[in-house]
Amino acid sequence: MAKAQFHKSQRVYVKPVGTWALVERVVPHWAKGLDEPIRVYYDVGLGREFAAEELQAEEPNADKHKVNGHENWRVIRARNKWQPAEDCARHPVPGTYPIVVTGEAEWGGWRVPGAEYDLDPNRIEYQARLIANAPKLAAFASNLVEWARKSGEDMPNELVQLAHDAQDILAQLDSDG
Predict the structure, then answer these.
(1) Helix axes 157-174, 121-151, angle to 10 degrees
(2) Comparing C-alpha atoms, which of 148, 120, 142 is closest to residue 71?
């Protein structure tokens, strides 16, 4: 007896072909007199049906880059190619600019154009630290909201308002628009 391991519209890696595909149909193979199918195959639109052993589910990205429950974003420094260090002595770290790395590799993430950085380097440095710490702030806000829900009526009004504000901010983060 077999049970379906994947569902329709699920993204899977097709090992024999070496590509990602969506499950278009779940195809059970039935035998007379049995309550469950004897085999389950999956049509992923590649010309034939594949067994579950030939497919691999996509790992959710939510926990892939997490450290201590939140994403491991960090600020690194890149060499300032558009100005020599002596021309930008007023910058916090002359000859460099901040990059917020949001993945495991040291090259992905958020950057600012050189001209914008040069206008107000202290502001951009602050923004980089703020962006890098955003996952920790979101986790803090989430913990505050959860604690407020558990505490019920035993909280001061100021703390209740802070929890409501945190909940509104988290709702904006989760919205698509």
Answers:
(1) 110
(2) 142
The average pLDDT across 19-31 equals: 91
Contact by Cβ (8 Å): 11, 22: yes
Domain extents in the chain: 11-57, 66-174
Calpha distance 34→159 (Å, rounded): 59
The sign of the dihedral angle between the CA atoms of 20, 22, 25, 27 is: positive
pLDDT, averaged across the chain? 83
Query: Could you count the other beta carbons within 10 Å of the beta carbon of residue 137?
Result: 13
Beta strands in the chain (DSSP E): 11-14, 19-22, 25-29, 39-43, 49-51, 55-57, 66-67, 70-71, 74-79, 96-101, 109-110
Nearest to 44 by CA among 22, 60, 75, 27: 22
Q: How far apart are CA 142 and CA 169, in angstroms?
A: 10
- With H, G, I as helix, E, B as strand and everything else as coil, classify residue 64: coil
Helix then strand then coil, in percent of the chain rounded to 5, is 35, 25, 40
Q: What is the pTM of this model?
A: 0.50
Give me 64's structure tokens. 């892939």
